[in-house]
Amino acid sequence: MTAVTPKLSADATAPLEPGEQLAEQIEAKMTEVVELLGQWRDATERKWAAVGFGSRPAIVVIDLARFWTEPGYAAYCPGAEEAIAATNELLAHARAAGVPVIFTTQAYQSTARGLVSATGMARKFPGSDTLAVGSVATELHPSLTVEEGEHLVVKTQSSAFAHTYLSTVLHDAGVDTVILTGVVTSGCVRATAADSLANGFRTIVVPEAVADHLPGAHTWTLFDISTKIGDVVPLAEATAYLDRVAAER
Questions:
Q1: Residue 77 annotated as catalytic
Q2: Residues 131-165: pLDDT tens digits?
Q3: Is 76 domain-assigned?
Q4: Does residue 29 lie within any of the structural domains?
Q5: pLDDT by residue (tens digit) across 211-242?
Q6: Of the candidates 88, 78, 67, 80, the residue with the CA atom closest to the CA atom of residue 182
Q7: Neighbour count for residue 203 (Cβ, 10 Å)
Q8: What is the domain extent for residue 101?
Q9: N or C: which end of the chain has fewer CB within 10 A?
Q10: Which of 60, 179, 188, 191 is catalytic?
């Protein structure tokens, strides 16, 4: 195994932790791989068409709750702050257009015998025993803008569609396009994107508004989504689309 050469942190006062050094190396290699895959895609006849926007979108915000967005929690996701800021910008345009907004969090019923309905994922991830229904860990981050009447879907699986009423809410509203934000890109965001496609929705992911524990996983997953599931659309393009929706209503 190649030895890890100590590197300085951003402020040049302390060396990066070994895990941070490895994360940087993984990110560099993953970025190179994704760039090569993009070149391969462009050089072959396999052209992935865009699914495009429909006419009736909804915003689904995945798990921007304290457990994933606040330092100190086991699942804290670096980059969550930027994802929240981008999500808030997207939500402002969505609300101006009268577009449905749905939030999700993950939580389990708590009894004297522990968490009920906790899935294998919950048992696997450290700290998931804090995700009892009503616990502080499951609350949406206080800097996330939430308005009265907007849905909060409490899920127990990676996908926001699994064993929830999300699909019913979207279909009842006549939605044809699901725009996803939140965390984590390679986990619950991707799982929800796959099920969004399976439920018949055009699926859009806004890269500035999602984040992952490992940047390399974030980079790869966005490429994977763009070739198999839906479109990865920059924030500026997504907000411009919502502005067009507002103008047409």
A1: no
A2: 888 999 999 999 999 999 999 999 989 999 999 99
A3: yes
A4: no
A5: 999 888 898 899 899 989 999 999 999 999 99
A6: 80
A7: 24
A8: 57-248
A9: N
A10: 188
